[in-house]
Amino acid sequence: MRLGMVAPLEHAHAMQQAGFDYLEVQIRSVLDGRLDDDAWRAGAPNPASLPLPLEAGAGLLPADMPVIGPERDLDALRLYMERVAARARALGIDVLVFGSGGARKRPDDVSPDAALRQLVEFCQLAGDACAAHDVTLVVEHLNRGETNTINTLVQERQLVEKAHHPRVAGLVDSYHFGVENDSSEDLLALAGRIAHVHLAEPSGRHEPGHPADAEQAFDFEDFFSLLHKIGYDGRFSIEGKLTGPIEEVAAPCLTNLRELWQAAATA
Fold this sequence. Notes:
Largest sheet: 8 strands, parallel, barrel
Number of strands: 8
Radius of gyration: 18 Å
Oligomer: single chain
Structural class: alpha/beta
Strand order of the largest sheet: 1-2-3-4-5-6-7-8
Low-confidence stretches: none
Number of helices: 10
Order of helices and strands: EHEHHEHEHEHEHHEHEH
């Protein structure tokens, strides 16, 4: 189990002090696929100067780069992904999270079947770019409040299977899992297809252990036991709103998560 958090680069020192293993960056700001290579290199971070390794990236596409509908531009998407994947590898990042609810929103005049075909095409295009740099694209299920495509683990599995690409995998997010009431069976059906996990309480989207409503606390031990059953033991990134400064709330949270992970192994 490796624990990280989606956070700005300037939080890396505090995260290292709290006991995190890595940092998950915001792709659009750190890898910015809209910049040409010279412009990006001029402002690119130096991983060697950071106290934590950069291992994953979230927030793949801006909302004005649609992957569904008549406005999508496959050439622009291909160039963007080629740049992002190359830059990810240069910084040590090997997982890129495809959430991007705005970019993958289905327009009203596009059928669900057509939207799925276009999502498959994008994942295959992105997978090719990632494969060239030994990076993996992970599809994130997003709840219906954030987008209108790939809202459940069942739909995520369908997309990953249809893309059928060695560099396209799935992600499980405890927040969306809880909001959408995905089932244990839906998670178990993703065995062999999960390459990343996001963590947050469904109630309030706070760090694990601090739900907005104590009566709606998420059962992370049960969640972890499911991941143990499918053989997952990779990265877990907190993606949520911290209830206090990193220096105060992160270390107890990480200790609790590690203890729950160990307890789940024998559950």
